[in-house]
């Protein structure tokens, strides 16, 4: 795998204000910062041929992306293989929106390895957002505000045919500040609890009368970020987002079988995305890395 030097990634920013219960001699925050990752969301479009090969693809604002990122995508995407898309039993060409999460992981010193962590295909994010009848914004925990803790919670929801949230769970919580393992566990739990509590009260449109009474599965990224006055929004095109990755939690009621490209954090912030093995394009190969 090829290594790239990412001068724009400042891991020192993660060792910020001390979390509750820390002390000046604790090695936890420094050790955690060394495990930090940087990620960039890359969006575009893809066209899949009738045999499941990639017919073509394009990236949004490609001129604003770092050269190593575009080289990584150009190297891997043409090699992808998909399950052919059928219409009336016949294979057809398919076009879809494409979201990729490019992740830089430390390899010692100032070197990082770039890889495509996960992808999401489909134009259903905005469309399903209009299915919401009631949405309650999660409340930023006061203790997290005092400690200047930021992070991203990746929820998965099970929505029953009546449009109610039958179950919800945080698959992963990434933190924007380092601490000891115990401190970060507490803060991940705090942010996850806030997001889950809010999501339980969400209500969506019920299925149409006569439709098969099936559950729908939706992913919802929820961001908790404090911003100083005048500070630019962090999600600009071509910008790296630095964080301490949290553990991935298995969701007992969601079947990920065959979802090789599936990744909770491969989605744009604050959207709602239908997921499942039968949703959108089905990538048969691993996303790949440089």
Put the structure in a nutshell.
The protein is an alpha+beta fold and 290 residues long.
Description:
The chain has 290 residues and is an alpha+beta fold. The protein has one domain. The protein has helices spanning 28-33, 67-76, 124-129, 142-146, 181-199; strands at 3-5, 37-48, 54-59, 85-87, 90-92, 94-106, 111-121, 132-134, 151-159, 165-175, 203-204, 216-224, 241-243, 273-274. Strand 9 and strand 10 form a beta hairpin. It starts with a strand and ends in a 16-residue tail after the last strand. The relative contact order is 0.23. Residues 1-18 and 22-26 have low confidence and may be disordered.
- The domain count comes to 1
The Cα radius of gyration reads: 20 Å
Strand content: 25-35%
Mean pLDDT: 81
Helix-strand sequence: EHEEHEEEEHEHEEHEEEE
Structural classification: alpha+beta
Q: Describe the global form.
A: flat
Total number of helical segments? 5
Uncertain segments are: 1-18, 22-26
Largest sheet, strands/sense/barrel: 6 strands, antiparallel
Helix share, percent: 10-25%
Q: Please report the total strand number as a whole number.
A: 14
Gap between N and C termini, in Å? 5 Å
């Amino acid at each position: 795998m090829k290594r790239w030097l990412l001068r724009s990634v400042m891991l020192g920013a993660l060792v910020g204000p001390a979390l509750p219960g820390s002390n000046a001699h604790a090695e936890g925050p420094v050790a955690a910062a060394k495990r930090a990752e940087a990620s960039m969301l890359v969006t575009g479009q893809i066209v899949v041929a009738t045999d499941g090969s990639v017919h073509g693809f394009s990236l949004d604002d490609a001129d604003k992306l770092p050269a190593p990122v575009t080289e990584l995508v150009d190297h891997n995407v043409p090699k992808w293989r998909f399950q052919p898309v059928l219409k009336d039993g016949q294979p057809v060409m398919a076009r879809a929106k494409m979201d990729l999460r490019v992740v830089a992981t430390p390899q010692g010193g100032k070197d990082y390895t770039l890889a495509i962590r996960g992808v999401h295909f489909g134009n259903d994010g905005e469309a399903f957002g209009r299915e919401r009848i009631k949405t309650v914004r999660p409340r930023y925990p006061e203790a997290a505000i005092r400690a200047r803790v930021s992070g991203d919670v990746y929820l998965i929801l099970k929505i029953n045919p009546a449009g109610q949230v039958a179950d919800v769970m945080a698959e992963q919580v990434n933190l924007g500040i380092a601490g000891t393992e115990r401190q970060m566990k507490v803060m991940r739990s705090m942010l996850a609890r806030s997001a889950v509590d809010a999501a339980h009260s969400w209500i969506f449109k019920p299925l149409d009368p006569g439709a098969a009474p099936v559950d729908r599965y939706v992913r919802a990224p929820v961001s908790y970020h404090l911003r100083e006055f005048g500070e630019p929004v962090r999600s600009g095109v071509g910008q790296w987002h630095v964080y301490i990755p949290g553990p991935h939690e298995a969701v007992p009621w969601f079947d990920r079988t065959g979802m090789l490209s599936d990744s909770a954090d491969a989605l744009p912030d604050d959207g709602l995305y239908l997921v499942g093995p039968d949703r959108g394009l089905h990538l048969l190969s691993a996303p790949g890395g440089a």
